[in-house]
Write a structure and sequence with these properties.
The protein is an alpha+beta fold. It has three domains: 5-43, no CATH class; 57-70 and 85-396, PurM-like C-terminal domain (Phosphoribosyl-aminoimidazole Synthetase, Chain A, domain 2, Alpha-Beta Complex); 428-538, AhpD-like (Up-down Bundle), CATH 1.20.1290.10. The protein is 40% helix and 17% strand. The chain has helices spanning 5-18, 32-37, 71-78, 124-141, 162-178, 229-237, 243-253, 258-266, 279-291, 308-313, 320-328, 340-346, 361-373, 446-449, 454-472, 479-493, 496-508, 513-527, 529-538, and strands spanning 89-91, 100-105, 108-117, 145-155, 182-190, 195-205, 220-223, 271-274, 293-298, 332-334, 355-359, 380-388, 393-396, 428-430, 436-438. The strands form three sheets. The chain has a seven-stranded mixed beta sheet. A six-stranded mixed beta sheet has the order 1-2-3-6-4-5, with helices on one face. Strand 14 and strand 15 (436-438) form a beta hairpin. The longest helix is centred in the last third of the chain and has 19 residues, at 454-472. It is globular. The two termini are 53 Å apart. The model is unreliable at 406-438 and 441-452 (pLDDT under 50).
Length: 541
């Protein structure tokens, strides 16, 4: 890193006179980077480039299409936009379809879309492939042929190894080439989170356009890829995903919907949409509403990725599920026999999901056989259009698929937002030096040890903190259960700071007082009368 004292002086004098850093007006000059690391980025000085492996999903708050703005909010904002009055726009913003279509004359039309999101997988090259496959999918959903693409990339420069950006672009380029599309440019910005995608332009014959508004009474509904990418990505973010789940989801997300689109057009599909961030329910209810029909699906027939049922049973459900429910839940009715976990999976935000096709019953069997013959083995009939209606979606179950029993059945499921995880960080209290340390760590406090060398004690203390953090994180037991155990153990051990902290954390997690008391009485049952008195004195703290 080269330093130019004259340039640094000149630039910093400007910042100081203004009272704001000229690179980042939110901070003063000298900034923290200059004070701590002797680096002035405004003067062109740079930190060393990070190196080593990177897990992309750990760098973002919401993974994949879960990072998109929810459907209800988007519709609310779009209502205030001025109308586009151009007769050449065949499908535009008001239609709420997958892509826009513009009449070029002579029976031809342009199909255009743009799609950008955060990583849904950890590997940079794979993420680039997923971003590309997801972006061209909107063209395929309309029955079009993608022709050109512009890359769009957000990247935290100098905070993540440079090669990560290169690998993302390489993955995207390779997948775009596989689709037969030419990349003719792009745009990049320095962003705090990694984001990638493409703006894609395609061609379509006007008489072969497939929109989401053409579903007819009696049509069969066919889904070409399994559900669960959002749940699997969230499970991976919090360290709870099995390898086979991650691999299956990754393979599906990098698979183009090209063959399914071609077959859909060949067999004369009435309507189509690709299932992405708004979930199966969001996209299906939009199709039903736009088509003026009601539909029903059989939950047991929906293809799922390995492990999704088990994750749902364990409460590993990302916050995008709740947002999708808010957006379209008023048009969805689930039978009383359908467990809540089944319903939740139907609202999972998908990344580079499959095509949802409405096709005449007379053509459905041949279409499905052709999909299977073309290597789209997960394609399945998931329901049908029941008749004309107001866009209602009914979820039924045949009873052939059951939610696995959770390891701790009956444990309340606490909604969790992406990126934060169902992680119960070990409770911490401040020691004499003001440092955050795990409660009950006095045994490794250097001030109380007295015999070992300071460096050795610091090492022991760090290892003990790592142990406590690992022991408190959910693995076979979920975070809610471990929080209850922490209360019981705090009572049994009569650790006042521990109990105060764990009572606070339990209330933050949504524990009722009855649940807190029940956990405490487990500790009292082991500790006897003194622990009962101890708890009664502190229960309201």
């Amino acid at each position: 890193m080269m330093k130019n004292p004259d340039r640094r002086k000149r630039v910093m004098q400007r910042s100081m006179r203004l009272g704001h850093c000229i690179c980042n007006p939110k901070q003063p000059c000298p900034c923290d980077d200059f004070r701590d690391k002797d680096v002035c980025s405004c003067a062109g000085e740079r930190f060393g480039t990070p190196s080593g492996p990177v897990q992309l999903t750990k760098l973002v708050e919401k993974a994949g299409c879960a990072s998109k703005i929810d459907q209800a909010f988007l519709k609310q904002v779009l209502q205030g936009l001025p109308a586009i009055d151009d007769p050449r726009v065949l499908v535009g913003v008001p239609a709420g379809d997958d892509a826009g279509i513009y009449d070029m004359g002579n029976g031809k039309a342009l199909v255009q879309t743009v799609d950008v999101f955060t990583p849904s997988v950890d590997d940079p090259y794979t993420f680039g492939q997923v971003a590309a496959a997801n972006s061209v999918s909107d063209i395929y959903a309309m029955g079009g042929v993608p022709m050109t693409a512009l890359s769009v990339l957000g990247f935290p420069v100098r905070k993540v190894p440079d090669k990560v950006m290169n690998e993302i672009l390489c993955g995207g380029i390779d997948k775009i080439k596989e689709a037969g599309v030419a990349i003719i440019g792009g745009h990049s910005i320095n962003d705090s989170e990694i984001k990638a995608g493409f703006a894609v332009t395609g061609m379509i014959e006007k008489d072969k356009i497939v929109t989401n508004a053409g579903a007819r009474a009696g049509d069969v509904l066919i889904l070409t890829k399994p559900l669960g990418t959002g749940i699997v990505a969230f499970a991976a973010q919090i360290g709870r995903a099995e390898t086979n789940s991650v691999e299956a989801a990754g393979k599906s997300m990098t698979t183009l919907n090209k063959a399914a689109s071609q077959l859909m057009v060949e067999f004369g599909a009435h309507a189509c949409t690709d299932v992405t961030g708004f979930s199966l329910m969001g996209h299906l209810s939009e199709m039903a509403l736009s088509s003026g029909v009601d539909v029903e699906i059989i939950w047991d027939d929906i293809p799922l990725f390995p492990g999704v049922l088990e994750y749902a049973a364990a409460g590993i459900l990302p916050g995008a599920i709740e947002r999708n429910k808010e957006s379209c839940g008023q048009r969805v009715v689930a039978a009383d026999t359908v467990p809540q976990e089944m319903v939740d999976i139907c609202y999972d935000a998908q990344t580079s999901g499959g095509l949802l096709v409405a096709i005449a019953e007379s053509a459905a069997d041949d279409f499905l056989k052709a999909l299977h013959g073309g290597g789209i083995s997960a394609a399945a009939v998931i329901g049908r259009v029941s008749g004309k209606g107001s866009g209602l979606v009914q979820i039924r179950t045949s009873g052939s698929r059951q939610i696995p029993s959770a390891q701790l059945a009956g444990t309340p499921v606490v909604p969790v937002d992406e990126g934060r995880g169902m992680r119960d960080e070990s409770s911490r209290i401040a020691d004499e030096e003001g440092e955050e340390v795990p409660c009950c760590a006095d045994a490794v406090n250097p001030a109380k040890a007295g015999t070992a060398e300071g460096a050795d004690i610091a090492q022991i203390k760090a290892k003990f903190k790592d142990f406590l953090s690992s022991a408190s994180s959910p693995h076979g037991l979920d975070a809610y259960t471990k929080q209850a155990m922490a209360i019981a153990l705090s009572v049994a051990m009569r650790c006042e700071p521990c109990l105060k902290m764990h009572l606070k954390k339990a209330r933050e997690k949504g524990f009722t007082q009855d649940e807190i008391d029940e956990a405490a009485w487990m500790g009292i049952s082991f500790g006897g009368s003194p622990t009962m008195v101890f708890y009664e004195q502190l229960k309201n703290s």
